[in-house]
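User: Predict structure, ligand flavin mononucleotide.
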Amino acid sequence: MQNMIIYYFSATGNTLKLAKLYKQAMEAEGATVTLSEITPNSVSENTKFDKIGIAYPVHGFRTPEIVTDFAKRLPEGGNTPVFTIKTSGEPLRLNDGSYAELKKILSKRGYDLFAEYHYVMPYNMVFRHTDGMAARMFNTAKARVPAHAKAVLEGRGNLVKIPLSARIMSGICLIERPGMRLNGMLYRVSKKKCVECMACVNNCPVGNIRFENGKFRFGSGCIGCARCAFNCPTNAITTGLLNCIKVNGRYNFKAEEDTRIPRYCRRSYEKYFLKDKYESGSLPGDVD
Ligand SMILES: Cc1cc2nc3c(=O)[nH]c(=O)nc-3n(C[C@H](O)[C@H](O)[C@H](O)COP(=O)(O)O)c2cc1C
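Assistant: Predicted complex:
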């Protein structure tokens, strides 16, 4: 029986859904799986694991810094195999380079990144997919995970060769990290709309939002993860220069599937959905 851990960072819930699907699928194969959230100060669990999973959303064609920083804090790995589960809003191959930096860091720490599984999930920034499309994405992931989880347990590698275009794009997108910190200071809360529920203050993964003397203050540590604006129940947060691509409000993943593909990146979405959707059967039970 294999003892596994999946460390995850999920700003708005998509990646956590995938991590839960893996836990369920791997446990169905007889493994033990612990889920552990990555936070700015989290460190690895003390136990020795047979394999480690790292689940992350693609941010700017890269692994988010909160995740690469976590990888730097891992203790010497003794060549422990690592797999990643990644979610992104679009299926473009430009996202293929997102694991490069993480692999390098892991290798320095003594870990062997051997597999990465990529799932398209609805955007939490850029534009809003329909609920039907969100449901289709989640159902597609659900159908694919059992075979992928099995392959991971068997130690089968699948890392794709990173196209040059993806390397260049993720290099350019490094600018996003300082950019997000600066842009985060431009976030504002509309007094008219805000109901002071404090969801943004209490849930910011890096503790960058404070409420002092009746006013919201945004510090200089924003990672641009979208959690505050996405989850605000009254859509009261404006996100500086990125407000035009803000997405607000949870998706209904139980909606009826929408088969219409958005015009944007149409061909790659079509290719993504056509690929072996029901190859692996679906998981027993339900995962929210
Ligand atoms: C700052 C930021 C950058 C993003 N960059 C990309 C990207 O480069 N490519 C992409 O396909 N999706 C991108 N997305 C979309 C997310 O990867 C996608 O919605 C993901 O499923 C969110 O996962 P989560 O709910 O676990 O946070 C980005 C989202 C944010 C907030």
